Every structure is written in structure tokens, then in C-alpha cells.
Amino acid sequence: MTLETLEPVRPIRALLRGLEALHALNQRDGLTVTEVADRARLPRTTAYRILETLRHGGFVVRDEMDDRYRPTLQVRGLAEGAESEAWLHQGAAPLVSRLGKSLLWPVGLWTVDGSAMRLRIATDRVSPLALVRKSPGEAAGLFTSAAGLVMLAHETDAQRLRQAEVLHVERDMARYEIAFARIREHGYAFDPHVVEGETAIAIPLRDPEGTVQAALTLRFIRSALTDQRVVSELLPHLKAAADEITAAMGKLSAAAERPGRAASFRRERWPVHA
After folding, report:
1. 65 or 140, which is more confident?
2. pLDDT digits over 148-169, tens only?
3. If residue 250 lies in a helix (H) or strand (E), which one and from where to where?
4. Superfamily assignment of 77-256 in CATH?
5. What order of strands is seen across the sheet that includes strand 139-141?
6. C-alpha dist (Å) from residue 30 to 66, 158, 170
7. 265 — phi, psi (to 5°)?
8. pTM of this structure
């Protein structure tokens, strides 16, 4: 029996309703049960059950201060495969490659994948200064990597707390919040640890509307460079590349919005978060 000869499958209404509720949440920075019910055209009791199910699954968090539900970082991971390929491969990859060849140190671009960071683009293969060769697909911790700390620093308090609960580091949040404030002030983060002689600096990568979509990193040999030298000599190049990638995103978005063009990349389809 082939797929063509199978009987038509009845849609799973509960799944569709859950996706409708998640879509409604992803358009605003927090909605009440009643607001979700109105936007998704659901009975209030159904909306509540769906939201609580999503909360138990780690996709949303309920803010006890205002009883609003907000999507977590895990929601962004749902869209990575289909939505980010255009700006990653057409917009970011050529510029990351050029930066890696110019600076020689290994450069990487990381995005959130559930409760971890995922390396999407890496120049290790052509870097003569990479002690450890990293490949796209490798993971890093949200709270234990420069890339993860940069991403968390630009999320909401509720989203950071949810990730802390998932990763069982909520008791350390007071210390982390001090670090997050410093990252937002200075615009970069360093890896908390040196691994096999290497460490890294990371900066946020924003879309044209200012939303942080990824982290751009540069790894260096600890014995060869001090943090001060990295900040003064290499950080300006990282920031310039990030600005170029943001501009490339805007061009791709504008091209996709022209009449008669296939929309392989649309700004409104990027994951929305505070």
C-alpha cells in the first residue's frame, strides 16, 4: 500500500488548536488566557488547557505577576530549520567566511536550539589558528558559553528564568543577572571557561528590527591573546561584520517582498521575542 492509496487522514484538532494558540502568543509579549482564546478563536477553557500543556512542555511560561503566558526560547528552535536557512546561507555565511579568512581566528554563528546553543556556521576548517576543529551542528550550553550568555542577556526575565529552571541553575540567577546586565552594557561576553587552550568572545547578531537572532563568536588561544587585546583589536571587526549581516538580512527581506518574487525569506516570519 502506497501513501497515495491511504484514506484521507482526519486532522488532529487538538494539535491545530495548540499551534494556533502558540502563534497568537508569538505575536505579542505576553497574553492572558482570555486574549489567547479570542485571538485563536477558542473556548476559554480549551485555551487554558492548551496553554498549561504548552507550559508543561517548556514552550511557554506563565508570569505570576500579570498571569500572562509568554513563549520561551524553546519556541524559537521550532522555526530554525525552515525559517532561518535563507538569511543564514545567503546573508550570513559569505560574510562570516570573509571575516574568518581576514582574522584567521575561527569564527562561528550560533542560534538557540531548545535549551542549548547550536553552531550553524563555522570557519574552523580554513582557520590555521583553531586548536580544536568545530563543525556546524555542535552544541554548547546556554549558561556555560559566551554565545548562550549573549542570547540570554537579551531575553525577558521570564524566559531566562524558564531556561534556568529547565537547566536547574535557578539558584544562581542573581549572579547571572549581574553578568547579563554587564553583557548588555558592554555588548559582548567571554566564555566562562578555557577549553583545551581556547576561549571565545561573542556578540549579539540582530535583525533589521533590532531583535537578537543569533550570536557571532570568535575563538582565540588564551595564551596568545588577553581579553583586553581581543576587545581592542578584534571586537571592532566582529561588530562591523554583524552590522553587514544585519544589512544583508534587510536586503534579502526587501527582495522577497517584491511583487512576483518567491518569498524565501520574510522578516515577519522570524521568531518574535522581547
Report:
1. 140
2. 999 999 999 988 999 999 999 9
3. helix 235-256
4. GAF domain (3.30.450.40)
5. 139-141, 116-122, 107-113, 212-221, 198-206, 189-190
6. 9, 10, 22
7. -150, 120
8. 0.66
